[in-house]
């Protein structure tokens, strides 16, 4: 945290906040033994997301492709016109693996996808030794992105959700007083 100007007592407190934690699991009243938690940031805290962002702040510096970060979402993208572009993107995925290993993290390859926009060539990419799944659409920050960049699926999903909410309100508001 020193690189962010955090030193002294606050730095010591943050270090304790992140390292001196224990957890246990309770299922139907039965408790497990306490275990020490020595990685990650505490979930459900105000500080957790901020500290996570500080932790991953250098991730974009490790790749040549464009990167967008939002909370724990990472989007890596690049225009692929040639075999060289394809290799550069794969090199960036390898760089992300190295970065994650350096910081004691791991990308879940099962939650990583390849979405080729307006490019019908099937190229394969790997992360952590797994071939990444090619998809025709993928949600990103609440927006359904399709390979042809049409919005029909997203609009249909938003309309369904709005109609569902409207139906809920109609069913439940009829019992409320008019005044």
From TrEMBL:
InterPro entries: DNA/RNA_pol_sf, RT_dom. Residues 1-145 form the Reverse transcriptase domain. Transmembrane segments: none annotated. SUPFAM superfamilies: DNA/RNA polymerases (SSF56672). PANTHER family: REVERSE TRANSCRIPTASE DOMAIN-CONTAINING PROTEIN. This is Reverse transcriptase domain-containing protein. It comes from Mytilus galloprovincialis (Mediterranean mussel).
